[in-house]
Amino acid sequence: ADMVCLVAIVALATLFLLPALLPGHTLLPLGLEGGIAPWNKQVDRQAQNLLLSDPFYQYYPFRYQGVQALRQGQLLLWNPYVLGGHPALGDALGQTFYPPNVFASLLFPLARGWVLLIWGHLVLTGVLMYGYLRQTGLRPASGLLGATAWMLNANIVVWLETPHFLSTLAWLPGVFWLLEKARATGRWRFVAGAGLMYGAMVLAGQTQYAIGAAWLIGLWGLFQTVVRSLQGRRVALQPLMMVALVGILGVGMGMVQLAPSVELTQLSHRANPTLSLFQSRWPLRHSVTLWLPDF
Asked: In angstroms, rounded to a whole number, what is the distance separating the alpha carbons of residues 161 and 52?
């Protein structure tokens, strides 16, 4: 039953992305060319979602520069084609040290590797969520339903073309799957595996997601500590030790990207956030429209 469910996850991801997986296709909002001369003459369709402009204007060109550098045996440390130059090493969105990107860059043409990475991460997060749900005791059919709901949730689907969103979020179910296996078996190698997965999240580029995941992992450790302490009528610190090891391994693995990113961030206009910045990122009206979209 488990194998059938895993095949179903792969099939669902493949069917969902089938048009982009066909030869000669990739996953980019190319309709945006309609607003850029002289390329607007070759566009026969309008852009459907202007909010997806970042992959077209920024992430795909950055990936192109990174692929070219890797194929010359180098890492892209500095991009001279952005104004007076751009410190590519410090830009976490460039995913310079993210292993799947490195392998895809060396094995496939850029356009093909771009969509295969999206497909691979979509399958990965579905499989990891299925494993986590099965670990919690759900039956195969229930696990498949939950994995499908996670794999095709609105956040993932809307931002598929923004590579670091999916590649960071994809590993999260795996972290909790291995933590649950470690809790059930007492084997620390599963904790180490969870730490490596969290390290992949840090290297994958969406640092805000990695920070949010750290909060969730910490809350898991605190909850498990309270439950075990109440059940055993003595303080049980093992879950907190597990969480600490995950953090040490994950942050240590990701420090090669975090250190230059923190330095670059200090030069950003976001280095000293103000109340107006937070209000612009989360207007109060959104607290209502999150639940009532047509309010």
From this structure: 8
- What's the pTM? 0.86
With contact defined as beta carbons under 8 Å apart, do 78 and 88 qualify?
yes
Question: Per-residue pLDDT tens for 183-232?
Answer: 999 899 999 999 999 999 999 988 889 999 999 999 999 999 998 888 88
